[in-house]
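FAQ: What does a multi-protein file look like?

Like this. Sequence, then tokens, then the next protein.
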Amino acid sequence: MIDMPPLQFAHVNGIRMGFYEAGPKTDTPPLVLCHGWPELAFSWRYQIKALSEAGIRVIAPDQRGYGATDCPEPVEAYDIEHLTGDLVGLLDHLGIDKAIFVGHDWGGFVVWQMPLRYLERVAGVVGLNTPHTNRAWADPIELLRARFGADMYIVQFQDGAHEPDRIFGSRVEQTFDFFMRKPLPRNDAPSAEPPVAGIGALPKVNLAFPQIVASYDGKLDPRQPFLSSEEMQVFVDTFTRTGFTGGINWYRNMSRNWQRSADLDHIVRVPSLMIMAENDRVLPPSAADGMEKLVPDLEKYLVRDSGHWTQQEKPDEVSAKLIEWRRRRFG
């Protein structure tokens, strides 16, 4: 297992944020690595090491509600305005003018929002698996409910009784054993549904994740895990301590985010890179089709034979592409 840099803390945007930093402080613009759900800054451990050894300054926070960072109680404290404001506050704390924001999964959604809201603080954006999309034509939760039903995990996450949080929190090791595996070969997997505007594509598979986890037996799962036992323990120990509510609260703000973005210009006006994973069932490469209309300065790169957890499944390839693109576009 790769060691992380020392954990540091910053008081930003009303919370205490834990973050990791490596590489020369003189390097600019630095890369800020933003994780998804259910993950941590630790998910970027390979990239932190590779980029810093290449002379690139890199910063990876545990985001709001995760790991070493505070977990406020109000659901509204996890809307996109807070999440992007946290990253600006982190730049302010470190005395950084502009950064390249790199985001995977939910972190990808956050970093694509950064140039829409704080263009003067953004040098570039990299989306890992998560594409930038235009604003949905209707409330995204209602669109998901209409297409996939009430059992779809994002729809379930809207439950005010926090039943999904309880299921995951009472079965932490089971939860990560289910999620952190490579997908089956592509010819064994069902195709994706057509994309929903503003949401993207989702697979024709069972998306009732809380119920799957509740009855899951890893011994019967033909998919191969990609974490070592020591790496798995980091996730299990951390989420045993924190629970899952903070991260799930990000999903509980999807309707609020949609409502409050009606007047936002969704064109991304900075150099951008979209890294896609060939076998991601939830965020397939096809979800990035047409991004060029919203991101004029866009480069795309496909990581083959990788599922959803791209920076951990294919760490060397992801790190190499980040280093190459950063050097070519920013020196």
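And here is the next protein:
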Amino acid sequence: MIRLILNVLWLIFGGWISGLLWLLGGAILALTVVGLPWTFAAWRIASYSFWPFGREVVWRDEMGQFDVGTGPLGLVLNVIWFIFAGWYIALSHLVIAFAEAITIIGIPFALKDLELAKLALAPVGRTIRDKP
């Protein structure tokens, strides 16, 4: 019940904006064709941005799903992502997390924004799963 309340509050007070921006970013990446390797990572982040409580971000190989994104190619894709997009997207999530944390009641939301910042740094090879 607490997860539902937190997710609804998250969605109302900004999660929908974050999720829509990640969806838009993924769509723009898909249109460029060069950005296709990062499109699905952006859309996974969008789903997490809409409804983060009760879910966690993990590397795919932790789930026994080894794929290209977890190997050397994934590392290269994450480095390119970090240079061209990841660092400033993560910085925006950090700024938002700081603003939420100083309100004290916003600390749970700040922690989720910190997870989003970490995810924005290197999204390739990660997936979202429900917490047990």
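Q: Is there any per-entry metadata?
A: Some entries carry free-text notes. For the entry above: The chain has a mean pLDDT of 89.
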